[in-house]
Specification:
Layout: E1 5-9, H1 17-29, E2 32-38, E3 42-47, E4 53-59, H2 61-65, H3 67-75, E5 80-85, E6 88-94, H4 108-139
Antiparallel strand pairs: 1-3, 2-3, 4-6, 5-6
Length: 140
């Protein structure tokens, strides 16, 4: 009996979203499309026809709050919304549906804005926890 779904555990740091996107695109070319991402980097795939597909990630907590209009904006540009995991929204688009190389970011400034959102949403809280931990050990 042939397997139609599978799971793989992969860990990518918050700044390795390019590597993660390439990993997902490679899996799709191999006939495994992403269906979800769950705790501790568990990627869930479903068997599909191998296809050259671009995967893109966006880190946007506010987009997750206004989920419907946020995903509609990308879907209007031909990007399929897949899932959200720890603040990242996952999108994909077949290369055959692109006029040229496309990204969900229209320019360098929108990509920089995502990096700033990552820093504010993920790095600052980690620094606060780290410094509180240090303070607790020094004073304790």
């Amino acid at each position: 009996m042939e397997m139609t779904t599978k799971q793989e555990r992969k860990i990518f740091t918050i700044t390795e979203y390019d590597r993660e996107q390439e990993y997902l695109s490679r899996r799709h070319r191999e006939g495994w499309k992403l269906t979800s991402v769950t705790g501790y980097g568990m990627y869930h795939f479903e068997q599909c026809e191998p296809e050259d597909v671009v995967y893109q990630l966006d880190y946007n907590i506010e987009g997750n709050i206004n989920h419907e209009e946020y995903t509609k904006m990308f879907e209007d540009c031909g990007w399929e919304y897949i899932t959200t995991y720890v603040g990242y929204a996952y999108f994909r688009k077949p290369v055959a549906n692109m006029k040229e190389e496309e990204e969900i970011f229209f320019d360098d400034s929108s990509k920089l804005e995502m990096m700033q959102r990552i820093f504010k949403g993920r790095m600052i809280p980690m620094f606060i926890v780290f410094f509180l931990y240090l303070f607790w050990h020094i004073t304790g």
